Fold this sequence. Notes:
The complex is a heterodimer of chains A (337) and B (240). Chain A has helices at 86-98, 113-123, 168-177, 204-221, 247-254, 256-265, 323-333; strands at 3-4, 62-63, 75-79, 105-109, 144-152, 158-165, 192-198, 230-235, 269-273, 280-283, 298-301, 304-308, 312-317. By secondary structure, chain A is an alpha/beta fold. Chain B contains eight helices and eight strands, in the order βαβαββαββαβαααβα. Chain B has helices at 13-26, 41-55, 91-100, 127-144, 169-172, 175-183, 185-194, 229-236; strands at residues 3-6, 34-39, 69-77, 80-88, 102-103, 115-120, 157-161, 198-202. Chain B is globular and about 50 Å long.
Amino acid sequence: MSSALICLNCGNEFGADCCDDPRPAGGASLGGGHPVPTLETPELQPPPRVEEPPPKPEDAGIWVGADVVPEGSFRISSLGYGRSGKTTYLGMLYFLLTQGRFPGYRFAWSDSLRELETIRAQLFRAPQQGGPAFPPRTDVDKTVFLHLGLRRWADQRYCDVYFPEFSGEDVARVWSEGSYPPNLQFLREFNGYMVFVDCSATSALDTGRYLSLISGLLELKGGLRLEAPVAVLLSKWDLVEGQGLSPEEFFRRRFGGLYEAWRGQCKALEVFGVSSVGSVRELTGHDGLPLKKDGEVLRVPAPEREALPENEACFHYRPRNVSRPLLWLLDQLGGRA
Amino acid sequence: MKVGSLGFAGSGKTTYLGALTLSLLQGDSTSDLVLFNFDGVDTTRDLTQFADQIQKGYWPARTQASKVSEYTLRLRRGETVFSLRIPELPGELLEAVWRTDHIPPQLAFLSDYDAYLLLIDPLQPDLDGALARHVHLLQGIKRAKGLARADLAPTPLAVVFTKWDALADEDRALGAEGFAQEVLPLLTDFVTSNFARHRFFAISAVGAVDAAGSPLLQDERIRPVGIFEPLEWLAAGNAR
């Protein structure tokens, strides 16, 4: 059994900046005392398809995969390029949910259980099998969607959170054409967005690529300003938090133009420093040289390890702010959908 | 009432059926549910064979991977008789749902049941991974019933932890509900989010095992614990 450490005061996962916004216990209100919004009947929109069902021979049985029922009216999507930490974030989010440690909400559904279990298995891989590792980089031919459904304790409201894994081709089009390709047009129907910005990728080129995520979305939704709330997740925050800056300050200093642009483009924007695994370590060979042929540093999660009887081990992650961006988005959305 | 018993390989479905049958045949029911009769030759033959194996100190043979049956027991409570239709199916077929996102044609009838018993072996290795498969299966059944994921299913669900006697004392001290919340939050949260009527139960089909790991018999009788409670709850239509 493994765990993520949870602050007993606010219910959030462990973090250096934890408890600056204590939340009352019991789930009566969320995100620092915002009132529980009233539930409105949302307008149903066609959901994104998680994946196409495989061909169905006559004797295949009853298809119970993701696309059977058009559903999902209250949706949040992540946006980000490859290697920005989306998959690891989702894995830790799923882990928090599997442990019942997501404040105010409980796990309700997933159309991606197999994928999420694979990610979880990587993060908690036994030492005999090489120890914890990041999920393999997602190289997909077709954009697919990982999914989590949450239900709020207070009023049983249901919410879908989608994590698109963009195909290389789709990512290239967002960047090169500044707009989302036709197969991603449904993103316009989402209610809130989580934009992943890699703290360790701060070049002008990187900044330009991030810029196109929101400008493309604006084009998609129309108008000069995005009404939907946007949570900016500065991923891999553990790599830069030693600088002593708040996430907002870091974002303004390192991505000044992006900060200003998004402040202008987004009606509601909040910046979070997120470290899904808490800390990492670098692996090198016995000769001290990089393990990867291209010389890139190999980083793996570095959870605390607790030895158990019978040569087993238990890993304790210290994720930072994994739940807070999503909670902020959910609070911003209230009953709107 | 059609009660669908679900459980992956090794969860104890057959043993539960055998222990239930033996207790009914011996009149050892600890509840006010008693035997009225078994419906049909197949039901009588198979269930009594399961019971006979337990009475001889053996575990019932594992269900063949290709065998799918549905047994009908008629139970009586006072002057009321009701039918309990319980399927016997190999856990391997249920595993196929996880792999393929399809309920196999042999199990299509599962979506027609009025209530479900989900049997879980809490001692199985990689319990966390197994729970995801249970959740996936319940999602599939809910979908097959035509329910949207945001909807609460009205179908009662009894989550039954088997082999309870083999659990550590501190786990048993939690009780079924506490154990579910403490050790299996993924499943607990899913069930709470999706089934309006649900309850957790702890059972020990044979009560105890001997030094060889076989059912412990006293005067050719087993001492099962809690095996009638899920059925009583389902029969009574108790809301949580």
